[in-house]
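Quick check before the chapter quiz. The format below is the same one you will see on the exam, so make sure you can read both the input and the output lines.
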Amino acid sequence: MSFTYDASMFKETFESSFTYLNGFMRNVSRFSSRPALFDPEKEKRWTYQELNTEVNRFANALDEDGIRKNDVIMYQLPNCAEFVFCYLAPQKLGAINSPINFRLAPGETALAIDDSQPKVFVYDMSLKDMVQEALIMCTHKPEIVIMAGCTDESKLPRGHVTYEAYTQDQPQHNPVPYEASHIYDETTRLYTSGTTSRPKGVPLNNINEVLSAHDVMMHFPLTPMDRTMNMTPWFHRGGLHSGGPCPTLYAGGEVIILREFTPKRCLHFAEKYEITFLIGVPAVLTLLAQIQGKNPVDLSHLKGIITMGSPLEKAACEWFHKVLTPNIFNGYGTTETFWNTFLRPYDLPEMAGSAGRSCTDDDVRVVKIFEDRKAEPDEFAAMDGQEIGEVILQSPAKSSYSYYNNPEETEKKFYKGFMYTGDLATWDENQFVTIVGRKDDMIVSAGENIYPSQVEEILNQHPKVSESAVVGVRDRIREQAVAAYVVRGDDSLTASDLKDYCAEHPMLSAYKAPRYYRFVDELPYTPTGKLMHYKVSEMAEEDLSEKNLERP
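Here is the expected output.
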């Protein structure tokens, strides 16, 4: 390749220097005495210099134990200071940090360990029994196992070490890596669950980390003067990268740790610590609005609340505007690509219900669905808000376009620079995308395609419904019949009430109305706030067999 200028110094500098760690270290230099991290429960604050010192202690301990480039440090932690140390310290050595869901069962944890084969495994004291079982089940045994949050070594399982003991008396200086960094080096490996038991490792490189941070800084916008608090766990993409440690520490702002979500605690912290950005799923915002409506606190410092994981309904958005803040944002995306469409305050509430349109550096399309092949990226569904197609995402800045150690899933999901999500949607002439379901959630009843999200939205409009999930169950005549799982907002609600309501609703065809109902106390959600329809489907098949479904 020829250039009109000498590009050698640019390439050498860019490819070795445009890393996440270098961005963090610039803030350590210029904002050394500014706050970087705060734990409200312990009332402990770390400046950028103090945070870097703590990270160095951990990094030097890892270095002493032979951790080198591309070694994996896996950690299973709630939002806490040790999470941030585990995120940054491996990058000092060119190693890979890999946070996993702390809500996993032992067998699921063992699968992740065997997939990535970490040399170091860090876990929270509260997970001791689960982790011990997982470590028995897994084939690969980490060389070093560290328990965080424990100072009493008598409570340690044999062979484990406390985080404090592991880092005690370690040097505070920046370690010198044995190999140079590169922009394509994997820095972070996230895990995303699917409908199968095998976890999917999502590798993120330096470019992905840096430009994910830039994306957040641009869309909020996020500045060194901001304080963020993510109300969801950091181990997933929306937790780590949307107002979590990644963008906030890259921008020079302050991360407020929320270990465990309760709406009252969140609102108290938001007022007391003058938080500027809150991040969470719409269901969390509903809980905040309920408490704020009864016992309001001062939220005048809030610049915005960012939601993701599911669409915002218009009525809910208007309520949040009134009770919480007029600056509501809603993002849509995946673990593999971060967020890729966005609704900004000026889009809402008018475009509530949609997922928005492409982020600045992304290209989100809705393409036709074929039974025997993927659509080509230019085989668009009609931009009429009617034709349903599959959402595909081109996210050149924020995706590595691959899964770790999983070529089959890589080939299935990634094609010609796009990720094929399996999400079903329509889009309009302005390219606003509206999600209507998933390929594997679609119900086929008497030859008609029924999309659960449409029925759920209508059920959720009933004043006595708190939330709902719609799935298909086997039916001798129709192949599948529609079943609705409903969380009551009022105990007086009956299945007959909902049957009459659906029959009278102007936006619901008769064949789409649920034939079965089951009232439940709660619905299953992923840690990122997405409704797990496949779990509801499993419940429905069992309830159908045991005749627990109610037919009004």
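If your answer matched, good. Residues 443-545 form a domain with the GMP Synthetase; Chain A, domain 3 fold (CATH 3.30.300.30).
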